[in-house]
Write a structure and sequence with these properties.
Helix content is 79%, strand content 0%. It is mainly α.
Length: 82
Amino acid sequence: MDSFTTHRALWVAQLEAAVQAERSPEVRAHLAEGQRQGREGLGGSVPLALLTGLMLQWLVDPEHAPSGADVTHELRSLGNGI
């Protein structure tokens, strides 16, 4: 999560590329491959979804985005409810 602030330009570029993928099959193919690698590297689609969701929260409203401790607590709560 630190990289959301230290590498903000990278994450913004990721979002911009996602929008461009709507109009560019080349960009879409590149991003799709990156997502496949991301799912593999992170251990599945749920961790990737958490990462991208957290990234969006940090880019839009960093002052109110969840901390690592917040995320851990909420994930534990979800796990306990299952």
